[in-house]
Amino acid sequence: MPHPRVEQLRFARSEWLRGLQGLTEEDARRRLEPMNSISWMVGHLAWHERLVWMERGQGLSVEPVLNAVASGAPASTPSLDAMSAVWRRVTDAADRYMDTLTSDDLLVPLPNDARPEPTTAGSQLQRITYHYWSHIGEASAIRQILGHADLAQFVGPIERTAPYRREDD
Length: 169
Fold this sequence. Notes:
This protein is mainly alpha-helical. It has helices at 4-20, 25-28, 38-58, 80-98, 103-106, 121-145, 158-161.
């Protein structure tokens, strides 16, 4: 069974996808400055997961297309379809890695984190989870401004998909 914090990240991802339902390629690529486009956000979240789980976690260099949506990169409006496909590949690979993590693993830095003062894997896991929630709100705001109706409201069925549980349950 995956660690409870991993389940919370997966729930945040599912809420992210719920918030993107019905989004067209055209609207995903619209940029309402100073915000980035929603398609950029999709790639950016994939970039963050790649950074943590592929590079810092496993020492892998994959999906170079994500360099264009890294933090600090110039604003862009990539294809939603392309970014969604990369996001799925990265999150699938990240899931396989995260399924191996134990509570003890989350208390130490990731094995390939070469930063001078790396944070723990658990802190990085929490940062990605909260990063999703930030972009969920931002994408929802963009969609409201664009006049989209019937958008996802509040938080979905967390009690069914990622309920609170102790680490040792």
